[in-house]
Structure to design on (517 residues):
């Protein structure tokens, strides 16, 4: 187990050494960057929007249900929804969801290219396939996911607002007051930092599992599953470490 | 817009020598010896064939020579350069002189046939799009595929995919051409067309070509030098004329495996 983990770590370091080199041509890199932004980022907007709006609404209902004490002002519902969304849901939970969607996509795409010798074909041409295939994905996801996180935060807040308006469990002014209460801008920095780190983990770990040699299509599927499990574990461990580092 | 005519037919200047020397190479996968102490020369401007049964190590040898599989022992020399001991930058320079047709064609799914052929030009030339398209048209015409440029690999037949693969392999005007099982999955007539195409192109551009096959039709049609692998070892090498009169039992079992070949042997040889 330890030997396997160390071997995997060694493979990861060697792969990253090949990924983070100067692209053969910047024009090709930027073209790929926009392709990847569309395929890995923009296609996730609807999914993240739907999940965030639902979670925002559910958070309002649950928080309101748990604050029945008349000594606790109702505006705390808005405050707690805001804090929950920015501190954990919009970065960590969204990253876990993206690990499933983006991570499996990257791992299976690269794995299929490996299996069908498309990666070998690139290497034969003298192209650094790791750099061409992975670097634009890393940059695209690390740039776009923090935007996706802020979008999730705003849509979550909107989801809460809609449920408040629909049910009247608290007033809209109480909800808005809670959203504005004791806002700490550093939390945004904290959440964006976490999202960038999580995005890096999602792309590079899924690429590592996809890039390795494959004997058949079942191995592509297995690699994809293993990559998601590893990414989720790494995200949770990193979340713990970053929270301790940045908020303690 | 007419492009520079040189772009159509030539990319790299022709080198003086194009020999490939394999010296005592060995390779194992997870403790299983796949190649054992193989020494062989692949001759300049010739169609060299590696033959052998499935699992004999043909593909591993071809990919080792092409630098896609690292070897455990021995040397692979391109002229006087020890390829397997070069730094990645220097290896890249030699890779740019290579073209390879893969068993499954290995065309990029995300690109059309035209984009597939243009792919190396996008990376390694500063030509205008018109010049690149001109070269791509030339290569597609050379493999008799003028009208399929805008189709994706999934829309092409197996034979067409192989021909696009050949066009992509020759677009940079390589000095070395490697073909891994070029006939696999093709009907006998298409297989002959592909064989002839590879042979013609190899001679036309004076390329050192190595083809890995188990198809005896290919051996007899285009094999100028033949190397027979048996259980990861070089069992025999020679010309296609001599292959029918070899003393090697393993080679005879391979060559005369089919009923038709056995009948021919009884009647003629």
């Amino acid at each position: 187990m330890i030997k396997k983990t160390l071997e995997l770590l060694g493979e990861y370091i060697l792969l990253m050494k090949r990924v983070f080199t100067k692209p053969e041509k910047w024009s090709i890199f930027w073209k790929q960057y926009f392709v990847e932004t569309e395929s890995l980022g923009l296609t996730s907007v609807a999914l993240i929007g739907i999940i965030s709006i639902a979670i925002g609404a559910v958070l309002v209902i649950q928080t309101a249900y748990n604050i029945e004490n008349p000594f606790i002002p109702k505006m705390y519902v808005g405050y707690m929804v805001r804090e929950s969304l920015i501190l954990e849901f919009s970065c960590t939970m969204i990253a876990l969801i993206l690990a499933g969607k983006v991570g499996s996509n990257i791992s299976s795409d690269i794995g299929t290219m490996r299996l069908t010798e498309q990666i070998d074909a690139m290497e034969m041409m003298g192209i650094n396939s790791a750099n061409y295939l992975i670097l634009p994905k890393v940059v695209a996801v690390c740039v776009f996911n923090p935007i996706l996180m802020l979008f999730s935060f705003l849509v979550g807040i909107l989801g809460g607002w809609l449920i408040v308006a629909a049910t009247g469990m608290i007033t809209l002014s109480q909800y808005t007051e809670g959203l504005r209460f004791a806002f700490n801008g550093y939390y945004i920095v904290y959440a964006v930092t976490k999202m960038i780190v999580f995005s890096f983990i999602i792309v590079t770990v899924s690429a590592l599992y996809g890039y390795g040699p494959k004997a058949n299509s079942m191995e592509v599927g297995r690699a994809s599953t293993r990559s998601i499990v590893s990414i989720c574990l790494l995200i949770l461990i990193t979340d713990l470490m970053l929270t301790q580092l940045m908020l303690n | 817009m007419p492009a520079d005519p040189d772009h159509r037919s030539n990319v790299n200047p022709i080198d003086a020598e194009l020999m490939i020397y394999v010296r005592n190479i060995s390779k194992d996968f997870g403790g299983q010896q796949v190649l054992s102490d193989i020494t062989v020369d692949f001759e300049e401007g010739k169609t060299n064939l590696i033959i052998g049964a499935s699992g004999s190590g043909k593909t591993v040898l071809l990919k080792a020579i092409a630098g896609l599989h690292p070897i455990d022992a021995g040397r692979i020399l391109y002229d006087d350069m020890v390829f397997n001991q070069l730094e990645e930058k220097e290896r890249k320079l030699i890779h740019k002189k290579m073209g390879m047709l893969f068993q499954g064609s290995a065309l990029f799914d995300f690109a059309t046939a035209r984009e597939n052929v243009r792919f190396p030009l996008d990376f390694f030339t500063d030509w205008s799009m018109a010049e690149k398209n001109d070269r791509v048209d030339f290569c597609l015409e050379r493999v008799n595929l003028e009208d399929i440029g805008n189709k994706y690999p999934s829309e092409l037949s197996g034979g067409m995919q192989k021909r696009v693969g050949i066009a992509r392999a020759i677009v940079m005007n390589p000095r070395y051409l490697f073909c891994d099982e070029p006939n696999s999955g093709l009907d006998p007539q298409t297989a002959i067309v592909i064989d002839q195409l590879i042979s013609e192109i190899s001679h036309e551009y004076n390329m050192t070509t190595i083809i890995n096959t188990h198809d005896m039709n290919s051996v007899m049609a285009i094999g100028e030098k033949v190397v027979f692998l048996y259980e990861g070892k070089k069992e025999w090498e020679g010309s296609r004329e001599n292959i029918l009169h070899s003393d090697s039992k393993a080679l005879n079992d391979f060559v005369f495996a089919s009923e038709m070949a056995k009948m021919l042997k009884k009647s003629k040889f």
Notes: Confidence is low (pLDDT under 50) at residues 1-7, 9-16 of chain B.
